[in-house]
Amino acid sequence: MKKKLIFLLVIALALIAVFMFIQAGGNWDYVLPRRGKKVLAMVITGGAIAFSTVVFQTITNNRILTPSIMGLDSLYMLFQTFMVYIFGSAGLTMMGKNVNFIISVGLMALFSLVFYKLLFKREGQNIYFLLLLGLIFGTLFQSLSTFMEVLIDPNEFQIVQDKMFASFNNINTELLVLSIVLMAGIAIYFTRYAKFLDVIALGKDQAVNLGVDYDKVVKRMLIVVAVLISISTALVGPITFLGLLVANVSYQFMRTYRHHFLILGSMLLSVIALVGGQLLVERVFTFSTTLSVIINLAGGVYFIYLLLKESKSS
Fold first, then answer.
1. Which residues cross the membrane (predicted)?
2. Burial class (CB in 10 A: 0-12, 13-18, 19+), 117
3. What angle do CA 150, 153, 158 make, to 5 degrees?
C-alpha cells in the first residue's frame, strides 16, 4: 500500500516540478511566486475535494454520491450571494475576505446538521431518492442565488458571477493561509475518527453492533465535509465531478478499506488530475478551454456510467 502511495507522490511531485519550471525564460522572481500560489491552491483544493468525497461516500454508504452532487457547493455560493445582497460589495470589503470566509464556514457547519436529519434519520433510503434530494437542493440553492442576483446592482452582480465559475487563473490567494490552517486542523481532528470510518463502511447496523457511536461520528464527519467544501469553493469555485472521479479511481487503485490510505491516495490523484490538467490547458490548449470544463465533462460521463452500472446491479 505504501508503495502505491509513493508511486502517486512521485508522479504528483514530477508534475508540480514541470508546472513550476517549464518555459520560465529565466524570469524566476516573477514566475515562481505566481506559479507557486497557483500550485498551492490546486493542492489544497484537490486535497479538500478528495478528502470530503471519500468521507461523504463512506457515511452515506454509497460511491456515487458526492457533496457537490448533493448541492453543498451551491449552498456555499448561495451564502456568498446572500452576503453581497445584504451588505453590498463595499460592506464585504470592510468586513475582509477572511471574516467573510469564517462566517460562511460557520453557516455551512450549521447546515450540515440539518443535512444530517434529512439524510440519516430515515431508514431505507435508496440511491435514487438521495440523488433526487440532491437535485432538489442544488436547484433550490441556485434558484435562490439567481433571484438575489437580479435584484442587486449590476456591478455587484459581476462580483457574484466571478465567484460562480471555477477558475485556477483567478484564485482567491488571500484565503490561502487560512485554508492551510483549517486543512491542518481538520487532518489532526480526523485522525481520531479514521478507524471508525473503517467500520462504518460496513454499514450502519454492523457499525452499531461493533460499538461505534454512529450518530456522533456521522455528525462530526458531516461538519468536516462542510468545512472542506467551503475551502475548495472559496479558493477556486465549484468543481462538481472532480471528487467523484478521484474517489472512485482511488478505490480501484488502492483496493483497501483503510481510510488513511484511501484518503491519501485520492488526494494525490486529485493533485495529479488538477496539476496535469492545468498543464494541458496552458501548454497544449493555450487557454482555449478551462480545466473545470474538462473535468466536469469527463466526470459527467463517468457519473452516467456509474448510474447505469448501479441500475443493472440492483
1. 6-27, 39-59, 65-87, 99-120, 126-152, 173-190, 221-249, 261-281, 287-308
2. exposed
3. 80
Of residues 112, 45, 42, the one with CA closest to residue 79: 112
Name, in order, each residue with C-beta under 8 angstroms of 54's C-beta and a sequence gap of 6 or more: 247, 250, 259, 262, 263, 266
Here the cell at position 197 is: 470510518
Alpha-carbon span 267 to 152, nearest angstrom: 38
Q: What is the pLDDT of residues 98-138, one digit of tens each?
A: 787 888 888 888 887 777 777 666 665 666 676 677 778 88
Instruction: Pull the grid cell for residue 251.
Output: 478505490
Q: What angle do CA 54, 48, 203 make, to 5 degrees?
A: 20
Q: Which residue, among 78, 75, 89, has the nearest Cα to 146 in the 3D structure?
A: 78
Helices and strands of the chain, counted as H and E runs:
13, 0
Distance from C-alpha of 200 to C-alpha of 145, rounded to nearest angstrom: 35
C-alpha cell at 180: 492551510
281 Ramachandran zone, left/alpha/beta (phi>0; psi -120 to 50):
alpha
Q: Measure CA of the first residue to CA of the last residue in the chain; give whole Å.
A: 31
Sign of dihedral through CA atoms 308, 64, 300, 146?
positive
- Beta carbons within 10 angstroms of residue 142's beta carbon: 17
In this structure, which amino acid lies at residue 196? F
User: Which parts of the chain sit beneath pLDDT 70?
Assistant: 119-128, 130-131, 159-167, 169, 312-314
